Known about the structure:
It contains 19 helices and four strands.
Amino acid sequence: MNKILSLxxxxxxxxxxxxxxxxxxxxxxxxxYILAVNPLxxxxxxxxxxxxxxxxVIAAAIATLVMAFYAKMPFxxxxxxxxxxxxxxxxxxxxxxxxxxxxxxxxxEGVAFIFLTLFKVREAIVNAIPLNLRYSISVGIGLFIxxxxxxxxxxxxxxxxxxxxxxxxxxxxxxxAGGILLGAILLALNVKGALFYTIMIxxxxxxxxxxxxxxxxxxxxxxxxxxxxxxxxxxxxxxxNLDVEYYIVVFTLLFMDLFDTIGTxxxxxxxxxxxxxQTGRIHNLNKxxxxxxxxxxxxxxxxxxxVTTYVESTTGILEGGRTGLTSFTAAALxxxxxxxxxxxxxxxxxxxxxxLFLVGVMMLRSIVHIDFVDxxxxxxxxxxxxxxxxxxxxxxxxxxxxxxxxxxxxxxGRYKELSAVMYILSAFFxxxxxxxxx
Length: 438
């Protein structure tokens, strides 16, 4: 047992098995919604929903196990939200690619990421991001996931007049708001596992109010769905025919995955104090990026969209998870979900609102490290923090923040403060926004 724990980076003198297990369970419960949402989204692209469910579970488990044993870090991976919507609604429904061709683009992206990671290109990009921007990324992610939580719980709704507005008070919103209050109280009382207990308590409370739905003929066990309808159904025809538009699609997937993952890793690690205080560098970062690359490659072969590191990993990290035991626990629960899917799918989004919102609150801590006196530092940080929730994209927040950082430094004659990598990245970012106009 001790040998296995050591392989996960666990040190009995520094870490607690109970804390790590609870952290993994909390992360899993907070992000378990992907097991219900991903099959629905990819199902709209014509893929078999039952097979997508199994593919989502298997890809998440394999990628997270790589994170646990290779990187020894407490991050959990699964099919990325936002990227799965791009896969189904943009590539397949709007652009007209078959889902087999879309899977080929994901596979090519994954293989490319493996090579970029082997040569430490991704790590070089991460390390080129200025320290103040890294802190702002953590804060921006906090605001973003808090917004997601409020939206999932119905506390924030769309409005034609003001874009967003306060939702009506219903059993769902009361469960969400009550969860935030309960979770905050438990955290204030330093209750270990506060976020997990809150999720479970609000799930149970939601049953008599109809918020937590118990399906007719509910059973605890169900046999896994076969992957046969979608696994290894890869169509490389567009790639082999030198389709320029298709190459742009692959690049777009690369871009989205790269900065969503970088943003999550930097934000979560910095917010949890896992980054070096002097340099801001994250230990084993390149290994964590490799887990992401392998996950995407395996996921494409199984039949699901791009696999990425989840922002919700911060819920487990802030519960005290610091080693691969946290991610190993989450991976084991993903595999269990193959047989217990009715139970995991029963947890309503409103019950997870508290975890997302309160993690957002805790991630604001990094804001005290930002230099607000120097406007060339504070303005780009502000752009980064605001654009993540406003554009509903971690990657867009990072890109716009970095572009404004470079512009501010160059226009004030402080261009020597910028690294060569920052200039190269900025050129690509400008091309990203200008290319569609040409």
